[in-house]
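not sure who needs this but someone in the group chat was asking about Carotenoid cleavage dioxygenase 7 from Platanthera guangdongensis so here u go. i didnt clean anything up, its just raw.
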Amino acid sequence: MQAAPPRHFPPIPSPLPAIKQPPAGASISYHPHRSTTIASAAISASIPALIPPAIEPRFFPAADESCATAFWDYQMLFLSQRSETTEPIVLRAIDGAIPADFPPGTYYLTGPGIFADDHGSTLHPLDGHGYLRAFVFAGGGATRYSARYVDTAAAREEKYESDAGADGWRFTHRGPFSVLKGGKRVGNLKVMKNVANTAVVRWGRRLMCLWEGGDPYEIDASTMETIGTVDLIGESGEKERSRRRRVGGGGFRETAVDLATALLRPVLHGVFNMPAKRLLSHYKIDGKRNRLLTLSCNAEDMLLPRSNFTFYEFDEKFELKQKKEFVIPDHLMIHDWAFTKNHYILFGNRIKLDLSGTMLALCGLSPMISALSLNPSQSKTPIYLLPRFESPTKGQRDWRVPIEAPSQLWISHIANAFEEDDGGDNGGGGVNIQIQASACSYQWFDFKKMFGYNWKSTKLDPSFMNDSQGNKSRLPHLVKISIKLDQSGVCRFCGAANSSSGWSWPADFPTINGTLAGQRNEFMYAGTASGTRRFLPHFPFDSVVKLNCIDGTVASWCAGKRKFIGEPIFVARGEGGGEDDGYILVVEYLVSKVRCNLVILDAKRIGRANAIVARLEVPKNLYFPLGFHGFWDHQFTSNTKL
C-alpha cells in the first residue's frame, strides 16, 4: 500500500522526464578577486528565485523543475539494496580510463543498505543496517567491486529466510532514530542497535566498520565476511576507570551527578544493553606519529549534564600508546572532533533532556532520540583545547576553561586542525590554531528530522534538508575557526567565518589530503549543491567543491542533471608530489536511471572541463543507496580475493 507523501509536498504524481540542467562534468572556477568563469556550455534561465549571490559559481535553476520529480529523485537516493556480491565484479569504464599512475589500493565505503522491512516498518537512514562496499584497484586498469552487509547481531536477528527461499527482514530493534510500525513499539527496549554503518577504517591490517555508540565490527578484507566485534577500547563492561581530569572542584552539583550516574549505569547496561563507554564513529590518523586516534564517551553522558571523554592512541600493532580522560560539566553531543600536534579539540554541541519527548519515546510514539533536544541557551560556541601530552613547562593553559567562538555553531564534521607558533606575533611564544569544519545553526538541526525522516508516511521529506528560510548559514556550510593564544596560553583572539570570503553555499563532508592531518593544509574538498534544482537547491549534493584555504580560490565540478553525489575522498598520486597531486573518488547516483558510478576526478583539474579521469559503472542490479563515510586503503595486497 502506498503511503501518503510528506506534508510539505503536494500529492505526488508519477515522476516527470529529466529536466534541463548542467551537462555532466560541468566545471566552474571562482576567484574572490576575479569574475566568475564557466568552462561549459552556457545555461539559459528564467526563474531567479533561487539564484545564489552573484559572487558564487552557480547555474540558474531550471524553469520546468517538478516537485514530483524532485520528491521521487530524493527517494531513489535511499532505495534499499538487499543483494550482496558472492564474487568480485569487474567494473566497466563508461568514460575515460583508469590512469597508469593511479595507485593500487582499495576504496571502502559504508552506509545503510536497507530502510524498509517486509512488515511495514521504515527506518531512519542512521538506523539502516551497514552495507560495506569495496572498490579494488589492482593495477593494469582493472577495478573490482564487492558489497556485503555487515553481519551484526542486530542484522542476524532481523534477517530471515522466507518461505520462497529469499531473504526477508523484520525490524525488531527500534534504534535511536526510528519508530517501528510492523514491530513492537511500546516497551521496546532494543534501542542500541549497532548497525556498523557510519565509518570504516583499515589499520594495522584490520578492517573495521564503526557506529556511533558501540564496538566496531571487524571484516575479513579478503572475503568481506564479518569476523565479529572488536573491544577496541577494552572497556565494554564496567572495567577500570582511568584517572579523571575534571572541570570544577566538586560540590553539591558534582555529588548529585555522581549519584545519578550510579543509578543510571546499571539501568542503561542491564536494561538497554548499552556499554559503559560508547566509541564514537569518527577516528583520526596521525601520519607523523603513525597512530590511530579514537574517542569514547560514557553511556550516561546522553542524559546527564556532564560529559566524560576518553582519547586513545594506537600504533599499527594496536598497542595502546596513550589514553587520556577528561570530564567536562556540560551536556554535550560530539559527532566529530580534531587533533593537532599538542591538542585534542572538541566543540561543545550543547543538548538537554526533553521531558515531553521522553514520554512520547517511551510510549513508542516518537523515536528515542526525542528524549534529547538542542540547547541554544548560549550565544557562543565553547571550544575545548585538551592537552594531548603533558607540558614540560608550567606555562600550559588551563584546559578547563573553554575558548568561546563568537557565534553559535553546531559542528557536524571536521576536515582538519593544526597549530603553529605565531612567529613573533603577540610578543612571541604564542600559538595560532586553525580548524576547518562544516557547521549549521541550532535553529535548523533536528535529531528527529535528519534526512527528512517521517515514520508515519514511510517516505523521506526532502524539504527539511533544504529549509534555509532565506539564510543559507542555517544549513551545513564550511567554516574556519581561528584561535590565537599568547605565551601564557591566554586566548587573545577567536573568530569564526566562512572558509572562503567568496563561498557561503551549503556544503558538508569536508576532507583533505590525509597525509596532512593535524598539519597545515592548503586545499579542502567537500560535497555541495549546484543550486539547479528548484525544490532541492541545497541537498542532496551534486557537486564537489575544491577550496584553497589560503587565498580563498574556489573551483567545483558538477555531476550533471538528476545526479547526486556522496562524500568525496582524496587519493594521493604518489610520494613527492604537491598537496593536490592526486585524485578525488566520489560516487555519483543517477537516480532517474537507478544506477550509480564511481567517478575519478583529477584533483588538480577540478574547475576545468577535463576534470573527469574515469567513470566506472556499477551493475544496475547492485545499485546502492547513499553512503556515509569512506576510507582509502593504500595497503593493497595482490593475494586478496577481492
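also Residues 1-24, 27-61, 236-244 have pLDDT under 50 and may be disordered. if thats useful
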